[in-house]
Amino acid sequence: MIENVQIAPKQLILLAVISRLVITMTFFPALDSPPGNQDTWISELLSIPVQLFLTIPVYLLWKRFPKQSLIEYSQTTLGKAGKIIGILYVLYFLHALSVFLFQWSAFLTTAVMPETPVLFLLIFLLPFCAYAVLKGIEVIARLAEFFAPLIFVGIIISFLLLTKDIDLQVFTPFMEKSFMSIFLGALVISCRTSEILIFAMLLPYLNAKKKKVQLVFISSYSTLAFFWIICTITVFATLGLDLTRILQFAYFTAIRQVNVGNFIERIESISLAIWILSGFLRITLYYYVIVQGLCQTFNLKSYKSFVIPTLTIILPLALSLVLQSSVVELNEFLSYKIEPLYNLIFIFLIPSMLFSIAVIRKQGENKV
């Protein structure tokens, strides 16, 4: 382990939950994959065991190499070839961060500040992220602990203020399509959870007994499912399925419908604040994982020398995506036919391969 730092289980849970939840709050990709109807909430509930299953290789690798991250035990298992795996994961995280920066910019410049140049937004945001990364994972984890109550309470309050406009009839009929369609939806949701790899990078810093790590996974995925369902009810029961299907920013549109006695209204600014805090945390977290991955790949003592050079890569890459791509092209990549399969390779297949090799070579603490 490169850094001599520790984070609490609660902090790791909050980092993963907020990082994943912000995607739902941005594009609300609930109807772009099976079952594509009112039974989406069942898929979100079923995603808990599916995500736990996808986490098994990462968990078993961590048990064998408790003081090493994904990048480090790739090299332990494969030797020099492990560096190639490390570089692949760094590129994966870099791509994931660039895509989210595209989403972040698209949302702000489309729904909130259409006259504001994307370059200004990115130049304003990324130096703050770089500063947080320089401070280390402990500071980032404390930020998650500080932001979490604001984010979670904000989501619940928005839901409660919309209860008078909610029509639960939209969730009938129950299980209109086959169970396989609902299960496939759960699999797609789970494959989009790249935070499984965040666990693989941060578990060596976890200050907890080995038995409690399983609870970290269960708590993370259960909390995620709870807030996914809250967001799904908020959007579906307020806007209806047909309108939700054609809206680019469905959750934000639903929040704009809040009007309690012509007194409490226009609370989308609260939703926007929640979204900005969540987005900042996700960007900072992935930024940290990228520079830490580079440091571990090249066996350097400190990741901090990579922070500024990496910034000069992230900014042009994000700008090129924003300027040369469209939201339609982004949605095509993020569709259930492409992104989940792409993620599955990194989340499940490569870790499974690494674990199999570690078992065959009898590497790690659990040698037989």
Automatic annotation (TrEMBL):
One of the GO BP terms on file: spore germination
Transmembrane segments: 12-30, 42-62, 83-104, 116-134, 146-162, 182-203, 215-239, 272-294, 306-328, 340-360
GO cellular component terms attached to this protein's record: membrane
Membrane listed as a keyword: yes
UniProt subcellular location: Membrane
The organism's place on the tree of life at top rank: Bacteria
Keywords annotated in UniProt: Germination, Membrane, Transmembrane, Transmembrane helix, Transport
InterPro entries, per the entry: Spore_GerAB
Membrane topology per record: Multi-pass membrane protein
Keyword Transmembrane helix applies: yes
Family statement: Belongs to the amino acid-polyamine-organocation (APC) superfamily. Spore germination protein (SGP) (TC 2.A.3.9) family.
NCBIfam families, sorted: 2A0309
Protein name per Swiss-Prot or TrEMBL: Spore gernimation protein
